[in-house]
Amino acid sequence: MSVTESIKRRLLSMKRGEPFTNTCFLKLGSRSAVDKALSRLVKDGVIQRVARGVFVRPKKSRFIHNVMPDVSRVIEVIAKDHGETVQVHGAEAARRFKLSTQMPTTPVYYTSGPSREIRIGNLKVKFMHTTSHRKLQHAGKKPGLALSALWYLGKDGVDDEVIQRIQEGLSRKEFEELRTSKMPAWMAGAIEHYAQGEAHG
Q: A Pfam family this protein belongs to (predicted)?
C-alpha cells in the first residue's frame, strides 16, 4: 500500500475539523514521502492546509464551504508538535475577562520556543519568546489566562474590581489555583487584599 493510501485510510478515523500535523504519519513513511502524500491529498481536496505543516479534514457547513478550526486549537497542536509551552498574551487575556475592549489585530502568544510569525489561514499570528516560567504557568488553562491578564494590566492597573472580574470568570477551584501560583508580590498582594475583603464582607 502506498504512503498516500495508508494516510488516507488513517484519516478516516480522524475527526473532521480537528487539526493535525504531518508528524502523525511519520510511522507510515519518510518525512519527504509523507509531505508529498499530504500535498497530493490537499490538491485532491481530501484535506486542507491551515498552516505550515498543519492540516485538517474539512468540516463543511451549509453556509460556509469549509469551516476553519479554531485558531487557539491550531496553536495548541503546533505547540505540542514543537514541544513548547504557549500562553495567550495579556492583551487578549484581559479582553476575555472583559477587562479591556481592545481587540488585538494580530493574535500574540508567549512561548518557551523561538519568537516567530506564522500564518493560519489568512491570519498572521505572533509568537514572543519568554524565559519567564511564571508567565507560562497553567498554559492553556483559565488560571494561566488570569495571570497573563494581570501581568498585562500591571501593578497600577489592578485593583479589587479587576480581581472580582477575574474571580467571576473562574470556578472556585481555578481561583484557588490562581492564588497559589508563583507571582510577583504586588500581584499576590492584590489578590489577597480582595480575598480578605470578601471574607469580611
A: DUF6088
Looking at residue 92, its pLDDT comes to: 92
pLDDT in tens, 55-103: 999 887 665 566 778 888 999 999 999 999 999 999 999 999 999 887 7
Residues 161, 181: Cα–Cα separation, whole Å: 20
Element (H, E) at 31: helix 31-43
Which positions of the chain have pLDDT values less than 50?
none
Domains and their CATH numbers in the chain: 3-67 (1.10.10), 71-200 (no CATH)
Burial of 87 (0-12, 13-18, 19+ CB in 10 A): buried
Q: What is the DSSP letter of 128?
A: E
DSSP 126: E
Distance CA 23, CA 1 (A): 19
Beta bridge partners of 88: 109
The grid coordinates of residue 24 equal: 502523525
Task: Give the cell for residue 88.
Answer: 495567550
43 C-beta neighbours (distance < 10 Å), count = 9
Please report the DSSP string for 153-181 in residue order. Answer: H-GGG--HHHHHHHHHTS-HHHHHHHHTS
